[in-house]
């Protein structure tokens, strides 16, 4: 008897050990641990709640606490449920369920994610915003594996549709695993210099990978140069990434030695983008997010002898290279790996890496974040009442479209309507009443170039000014004296 129990315990211990190590070994591939069930109530937030027992903290899968799930006060498409995972985490799957013992469930929803809870990105799949299929009853769990995993601290579920004979209600779980992140922030005048001992000209293969996030459209992300005029530069230029490789010794200015690749667009959107540069002999794969360009280096590689240093975020001491603007990168770099060496880790240890200027190892978000208007029906509405005598609006926009409405408002006391819009790539302002134009102004040109532009509008007691990119537009033409003051409901369109 005793003997039997002992064996049993021994076997259990052995099995536990096996299970431990098995799951440890599989940890990397099996990124599917439940992330929500252990979170405290304070990690949940929502647009509203039907009652205290319907609060978002009850939205955990298979739980029956409170009213058995979250339900918002109103069932409409302006509701959301938010989860704070505590730190940036890799999310690979999501599962939903209706509210326990009710006829409340969500039949389709969108997913958004964010690092900070302020600047959100839509989950996309197959190149469009992805609507997930939800539930058809209160109890069955519908699980969905994400085609691309998401790295985020905050997740938001936006119900699109729900049981027509019930309310909007849900419980959920998300699955994933910890995400290791080493970040460095550059302020536009700082950089990191990495000195290494390997002879890179003699390695057959080089791999550089990183993620970056910025609101600034230009700046040098990486630069290395050799004694013989050979150089490698990765630069963000007007929202696109340029990879410039110069080879060889002879005729260093000749075009044969110049290699320029361009990838991506609108990358200065304060969301993470990944870059991978792989070289095998003369062959280069340059990957930005999901797009890869394959390329064969022109020119003589045999003299491509580097100084065994690479700089990140800028060119320290304003390098010898004259091909590039001297603008430093302003933003965050994450998980910067050069041939499997974690450069940011080394920088933290001040080991082989020297920082110049202000480099910090955290990524803070600017106070202003952009919003994207994805379709002609999307707009933002600011409810009134606004100050009556003064209208002062400033905004930044970017678009590839030649025409579109930026803002409109009805003026105070039926004085007319104000329209601020883009037409033929110019910003136009028009104030009209009963089909009669009271004032108009135009500023800027070719503004539909995908770059950020600023617009300022100031109206006060019959005077109105319009500025684009800090330059005043044509003076407003008033066909008759008019009274400018804003009314209710300022609307912003794209
Ligand atoms: C919940 O969301 C609301 C609205 O966005 C916000 O004002 C509030 O601070 C959030 N609460 C928590 C605990 O994050
Ligand atoms: C780098 O190459 C030089 C010349 O080819 C050689 O003398 C040196 O030992 C090499 N260094 C390393 C670390 O391989
Ligand atoms: C580039 O990618 C292709 C396709 O994945 C692969 O076959 C090739 O080996 C890669 N080349 C380099 C230089 O990494």
Automatic annotation (TrEMBL):
Native species of this protein?
Synaphobranchus kaupii
Q: Where does this polypeptide localize?
A: Membrane
Keyword annotations for this protein, in alphabetical order, are: EGF-like domain, Membrane, Signal, Transmembrane, Transmembrane helix
Q: How does the record say this protein sits in the membrane?
A: Single-pass type I membrane protein
Q: Where is the signal peptide?
A: 1-27
Q: Which Gene3D superfamilies match?
A: 2.60.120.200, Galactose-binding domain-like
Identify the main location: membrane
Record flagged with keyword Heme: no
Which named protein is this? Contactin-associated protein-like 5
The Laminin G domain extends over 183-363, 369-494
């Amino acid at each position: 008897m005793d003997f039997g129990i002992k064996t049993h315990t021994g076997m259990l211990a052995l099995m536990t050990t096996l299970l431990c190590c098995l799951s440890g070994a599989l940890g990397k591939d099996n990124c599917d641990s439940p992330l929500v069930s252990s979170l405290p109530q304070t990690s949940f937030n929502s647009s509203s709640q039907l009652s205290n027992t319907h609060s978002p903290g009850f939205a955990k899968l298979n739980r029956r606490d409170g009213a058995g799930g979250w339900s918002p006060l109103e069932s409409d498409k302006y509701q959301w449920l938010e989860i704070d995972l505590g730190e940036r985490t890799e999310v690979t799957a999501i599962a939903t369920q209706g509210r326990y013992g009710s006829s409340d469930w969500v039949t389709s929803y969108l997913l958004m994610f964010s690092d900070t809870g302020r600047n959100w990105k839509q989950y996309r799949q197959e190149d469009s915003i992805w609507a997930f299929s939800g539930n058809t009853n209160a109890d069955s769990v519908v699980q969905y594996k994400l085609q691309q995993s998401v790295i985020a601290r905050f997740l938001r579920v936006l119900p699109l549709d729900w049981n027509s004979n019930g309310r909007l209600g849900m419980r959920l779980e998300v699955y994933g695993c910890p995400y290791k992140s080493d970040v460095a922030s550059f302020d536009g005048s700082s950089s990191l210099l990495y000195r290494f001992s390997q002879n890179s000209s003699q390695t057959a293969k080089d791999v550089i990978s990183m993620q970056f996030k910025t609101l600034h459209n230009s700046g040098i992300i990486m630069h290395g140069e050799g004694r013989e005029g050979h150089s490698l530069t990765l630069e963000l230029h007007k929202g696109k990434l340029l990879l410039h490789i110069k080879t060889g010794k002879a005729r260093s200015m000749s075009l044969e030695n110049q290699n320029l690749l361009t990838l991506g667009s609108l990358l200065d959107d304060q969301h993470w983008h990944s870059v991978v540069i792989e070289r095998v002999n003369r062959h280069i794969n340059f990957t930005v997010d999901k797009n890869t360009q394959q390329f064969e280096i022109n020119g003589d590689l045999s003299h491509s002898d580097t100084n065994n240093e690479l700089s990140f975020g800028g060119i320290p001491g304003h390098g010898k290279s004259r091909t590039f603007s001297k603008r430093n990168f302003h933003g965050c770099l994450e998980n910067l790996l050069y041939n499997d060496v974690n450069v940011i880790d080394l920088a933290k240890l001040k080991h082989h890496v020297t920082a110049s200027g202000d480099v910090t190892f955290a990524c803070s978000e600017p106070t202003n974040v952009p919003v994207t208007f994805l379709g002609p029906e999307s707009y933002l509405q600011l409810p009134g009442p606004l100050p009556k005598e003064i209208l002062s609006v400033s905004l930044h926009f970017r678009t590839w479209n030649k025409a579109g409405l930026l803002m409109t408002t009805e003026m105070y006391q039926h004085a007319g309507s104000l329209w601020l819009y883009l037409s033929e790539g110019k910003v136009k302002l028009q104030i009209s009443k009963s089909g009669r134009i009271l004032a108009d102004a135009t500023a800027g040109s070719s503004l539909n170039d995908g770059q950020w532009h600023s617009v300022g509008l100031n109206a006060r007691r019959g005077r109105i000014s319009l500025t684009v990119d800090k330059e005043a537009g044509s003076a407003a033409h008033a066909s008759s004296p008019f009274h400018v003051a804003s009314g209710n409901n300022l609307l912003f369109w794209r």
